[in-house]
UniProtKB/TrEMBL annotation:
One of its GO terms (biological process) is phosphorelay signal transduction system. It holds the Pfam family Response_reg. It comes from the Bacteria. CDD domains: REC_Rcp-like (cd17557). The lineage of its organism: Bacteria, Pseudomonadati, Pseudomonadota, Betaproteobacteria, Rhodocyclales. The keyword 4Fe-4S does not apply. Keywords: Phosphoprotein. The modification 4-aspartylphosphate is found at residue 67. Residues 6-134 form the Response regulatory domain. This is Two-component system response regulator. It comes from Zoogloea ramigera. InterPro entries: CheY-like_superfamily, Sig_transdc_resp-reg_receiver, TCS_response_regulator. The keyword Cytoplasm does not apply.
Length: 149
C-alpha cells in the first residue's frame, strides 16, 4: 500500500467523518487522513494556502474523498478548481456523498470525478465500501506521475 501519501477527506458532518475514520481504521488503512471540514479548507490544503501555507506542496494526497454538500464552497466547485489547476488536475477524486440527485452525479462526472459513491446508511456496508476504496486507490490503482511530463 502507498502509505507515504495522506488521504484528504472533505467532510463537514462530524458523524460521517467519525464513521469514515473508523472504517479506515477497521480496514487497516495506515495512511494519515487529513480532514477538511469545508471547501475552502480543502482548497487551502491542496494549494498550500491559508493555514496550510507551510505544507510541502510536493506531497499530494493519494486520493480525495469529497462530499458535495459543504459549507463556504460546495464540493462541485472544489472539484472544478481541482481539475482546473495543473498541479491537481490528475489527482484522483472520489465523490462520497448522500446525494442521489441525477444532476449531482452528472455534474460530478462532467467535472472529472473518478468515481461517485453514495454513502451507505448501514455501517457494515459503509465499512466495506471504504475498505474497497482504500484497497483500490492505495494498492491496485497506478497513479500518474506528475513529474513525467
Amino acid at each position: 500500500m502507498a502509505t507515504d501519501r495522506p488521504i484528504l477527506l472533505v467532510e463537514d458532518n462530524p458523524d460521517d467523518e467519525a464513521l469514515t475514520l473508523r472504517a479506515f481504521s477497521k480496514n487497516k488503512i495506515p495512511n494519515q487522513v487529513v480532514v477538511a471540514r469545508d471547501g475552502v479548507e480543502a482548497l487551502d490544503y491542496l494549494f498550500c494556502t491559508g493555514q496550510y501555507a507551510s505544507r510541502d506542496s510536493l506531497i499530494m494526497p493519494a486520493f480525495v474523498l469529497l462530499d458535495l454538500k459543504l459549507p463556504r464552497i460546495d464540493g462541485l466547485e472544489v472539484l472544478r478548481r481541482i481539475r482546473a489547476d495543473e498541479r491537481t488536475a490528475l489527482l484522483p477524486v472520489v465523490v462520497l456523498t448522500t446525494s442521489k440527485e441525477h444532476q449531482d452525479i452528472f455534474e460530478a462526472y462532467r467535472l472529472g470525478a473518478n468515481s461517485y459513491i453514495r454513502k451507505p446508511v448501514d455501517f457494515e456496508r459503509f465499512l466495506q465500501a471504504v475498505g474497497q476504496l482504500g484497497l483500490y486507490w492505495l494498492s491496485l490503482n497506478e497513479p500518474s506521475d506528475p513529474t513525467a511530463r
